[in-house]
Amino acid sequence: MEASIFSPTLIKGLTDKIYDRRKAAALEIERLVRENEDSNERITQIVDALVQEFVYSNNPYARYGGLIGLAATSIALGPVGSSGVSRYLDIIVPPILSCFSNQDQKVRYYACESMYNIAKVAKGEVLRYFNSIFDALCKLSADSEISVKNGAELLDRLIKDIVSELSTTYVSPYSEPYNSIEAGGNKLDTPSSLPRNTAFSLPRFIPLLSQRIYVRNSAARQFLVSWMCVLDSIPDLELVSFLPEFLDGLIRCLNDVSEDVRVAASGLLQDFLNEIKEAAAARTVQIKQQQQALLKRKEGSIKTADEDTTTTTTAVTEDNAEEQDTTATEEQEEAIQADDTKEDEQDEKSLVDSENDGHGKGTYVPGQGVIVQYGKIVEILVPHLSSSEEDIQKTALLWINAFIEIAQNVIIQYTPEIIKAVLPSLAHPVTPIRNIALETNQNLQRLVLETPIQASSSSSTPPEPAASKSDPSGGNTKKKSLMVSSATTAAAQQQDPFDYQATVANLRLQFLNQNEETRVASLDWLLMLHKKAPNKILASDDGTFPALLKTLSDPSEDVVRRDLQLLAQISSYSDHDYFRSFIMSLLSLFSTDRRLLETRGSLIIRQLCMSLDPERIYCAIADILEQDEDLEFASIMIQNLNIILITSSELTDLRKRLRNLEHRDNQRLFNALYRSWCHNAVSAFSLCLLSQVYEHAANMLQIFAELEITVNMLIQVDKLVQLLESPVFTYLRLQLLEPEKYPYLFKCLYGILMLLPQSSAFSTLRNRLSSVSSLGFLHVLPKATPATSSTATSTSTDRKGSKSSSTKVEEINTIKYSDLLTHFKSVQSRHEKQRRQCKLTYN
Fold first, then answer.
1. CB proximity list for 829: less than 8 A, separation 6 or greater
2. Of the ranges 23-27, 107-111, 196-200, which is most confident?
3. 17 is in which domain, residue-wise?
4. Distance in angstroms (rounded) separating the CA atoms of residues 110 and 71
C-alpha cells in the first residue's frame, strides 16, 4: 500500500475516538487545503485520500473523520474562484451520499452534518445532486434514531432554502445535472416557461417523486408533502403542470394515521385546485381577447378588400366587365384567405408565446401559461370517487365538481364512469359528502343536457348549388362545393364525446343499488337522456327494457313512478308494435307476479294513463286480454281496470266519452272495452251502467241467473253498490227521478238488489230505491222483453230522452247489442267450464 499523503499525526487525529481530536484534525486538513488551493492535482489527491482511506474504511472512527475531513475541505475551497468547491463536488458528494444508508447511526448523522457544510458552501451547485440528496433525506426522515432525524431536518431546511432561492436561476458551469437515482421514464409535458438549463431540473425530479409518493410511513409522507409545498410556492417551476404524476399518491395521504399529514395534504390539494381554477380563468380571458382581436383584423381586411374591389370594378371596361369581376373576386378571396391564414398563424404563435413565456412581457397573470392535463387528472380522480375513506371521497367529489365548470370537454368523456361512482354517494351517511355528491350530480346533468348532440357520420352531404349565370363554367361553385365537402367530411369525422350506451349501461346497474336515492337518480338520468336523444338511448336489445319492467316491483313508490314515467316516455316515442310489446310485457309481469298486481297494479295503470293517452292504454290492454288464454288472470285484471276506470281522476275524460255514445269514436271505444270486460260479469255490467246502456244491462242480469253466483262475484256486486253511492254515479242517481226516460235503470238496480244477500250493501241499495219508489214511480217499470230483442228504440229512450234525432239513433244502432250479449254468454260459459275443470282437478 502506497504511503498516505497525510502525516501519521493527522491520520491518528482523524481516526481518534474523541470527537474534539477528530475536529482538530479536520482543521489541520482545512489548513492543508488552503495551502494547496492553487494546485488542482494536490486538492484531488487530498479528497481521494479522505475518501479511500477514511470514508470507505471499515473502521467506524475513520469514517467519522473522513466525513468531517470532506466537509473541512469544502469549507477551505470556498464557493467561488477557479479552485472553488464546485469543480470537486463530483468526487466529494458521491461518497457522502453512500454513507446516508450506512448501518451505523453515527455515520448517517456525520454524513448529514458533512453534507450540510458542503451545501452551505456550494449553494446552487449542490442542486446538480438534488435527486440523490432528496432520496436520501426521504429515507432518513423515517429513521429510528432521533439524532439522525434531527440532522436530516437541518440539512432538509438548508436544501429547501437553496431550492427556493436558486432553483430557477442557477446554471452550473461545470457539468450536466447529476441524477444517479433517476431511471428514465416517459417524457413529461413541460411548459416552455420552465427553465431548461438550470442545475435543478423539475422534469428529472418528478419521476423520483412519483415513486416515493406511495410510501406508507407518516414521517416520510410529511417530508414529501412539505417539499411539494415548497416547489409549488415557486412560481416559475409550475409544479401543477406535473400534477398527474403524483396526484394519486398525494390523495392517498389523506387516509394517513397522522392528522398533521392529512391536514397538510388537504391544504396542498386545495392550493393545486385553486391554481387550476386560476389557469382556467386566465385561459378563458386570453381566448376571448384573442378572438376579439382576430375579429377586428378580419373586419379590417374585408373592408380593405371591398375598397380594392370597388376600385378595380371602376377601372375595367364594359366589354370585359364580367371577366374582370370574376378575376378580381378570385384574387380578392385568395388575398383575404392568405391574410387570414397569416393572421391566424401569428395569433396562434402569439397565444402560445404569451402562455408559455414565463419571463414574458406585460403584467403577470396568475395561472397564465400553466399546462393542466385535465384528462389525466380526471382519470386519477374517478376511482377515488368510490373510496371507503371519507376524506378521499370528499376531495375527489370536490375536484370533479370543480372540473365540471372548468373542463367540460374532458368531463363529458368520463361521464359514464363518474355517474357510476357519484350516484351511490347520494345516500352517503355523511352529510357533507352527500351534499357534494348531490351538487355534482345536478351539475353533471346540466352539462350533459347542454352538450349538443353530434351529427352522425351518415348524414347526407348538402347538394351542390347550380352554376350561376355570371359563372357559366361553374368555377366558383366548384370551389365552394369543395369547401362544403371538406367541412362536411371534417364534421362527420368528429365523434360524439358523450358515450350514451356506456352511460345507460352504468345507470342500469344502479337499479340494483340498495339506496332509494340512487335508484331514483338513475331513473331521472334515463328520463333526461331519453328526452334529449331518444334515438340513441334504450336500444331494443340492450337489456334496459326488461330491467325497467323488473323495477316496477321496487319497494319504493318514487322509483316506480319514475320508472313508469320513463316507460311511458319510451312508448310515446315508439311505434305501435313497440307499444303493444310493452303492454304485453307488463301484463305478463302482472300474470306472473300477482302480488305486484295487488299492491302496485292500480298505481302503475294510473301513472301510465297520466303520461300517455288513456284510451290507447285501455284499448291495447283490452285487445290483449280478450285473446288471453289465462281466463282467471283476465278476470282479475279486468276487475282492477274497471275499478280504476270508475274511480281514477286520470280517466275522467274517458268516462265522459263512454257516457256519450252518440259519436262513432265513442261507440268503437265501448265495443273494444266491452268485449274484453266480458271476462268479468260484474265489471261488464258496471261498464254498461257507466255508459248508460241500461236496457242491455238489464238483459245481462237475466244471464246472471244462469251463472254460478260465487262468493267472489257477490263481493264484486257489493263493491259496485258502494261505487253507485260515489260521486262518479251522481248522474245515475239523479236519473232515478225520471223513470219515464230511464225505465230500465230501475230494473237494473232492482236486479242487483235481488242478487245480493241480506247485507249492508243490500240495505244501502234498498234504502236508495225505497226513497224513489215512495214517490209512486214503480208503475213505469217496463215489461219483460226477450234478451235478444232489438234495443234501438229503448236505448234511445234510456239515453237523453226524446232529444235523440234520427241521425243519433242510426249512430247508436251501430252498436250491435245482440252480438255483444252473445259474446258475453260465450265468454262466461268458458269461465264456467274452466271453474268446473278446476274443481274436478282439486277433487
1. none
2. 107-111
3. 1-179+193-198
4. 10
**Structurally, how many domains does the chain consist of?**
2
Q: Is 233 helix (H, G, I), strand (E, B) or coil?
A: coil
340/338 Cα distance (integer angstroms): 5
Q: Which of 450, 483, 512 is the last residue of a domain?
A: 450
Who's near 147: CB < 8 A, 6+ residues apart?
105, 109
Residue 480 has a CB neighbour count (10 Å cut-off) of: 13
> Among 525, 533, 382, which residue's Cα sits nearest to residue 446?
525
C-alpha torsion 646→649→652→654, nearest 10: -70
CATH number at residue 165: 1.25.10.10
CA–CA gap between residue 141 and residue 11 (Å, rounded): 33
Q: What is the pLDDT of residues 133-146, one digit of tens each?
A: 999 999 999 999 99
Helix residue ranges, H only, 511-572 = 516-532, 544-551, 557-572
pTM: 0.76
CA dist 296 and 308 (Å) reads 19
Tens of pLDDT along 207-242? Answer: 999 999 999 999 999 999 999 999 999 988 889 999
| Site of grid cell 370574376 | 326
Query: 803: left (phi > 0), else alpha (psi -120 to 50), else beta?
Result: alpha
Q: What is the pLDDT of residues 608-620, one digit of tens each?
A: 999 889 999 999 9
Written as one letter, the residue type at 841 is T
Q: How confident is the model at residue 743 (pLDDT cuts 50, 70, 90)?
A: confident
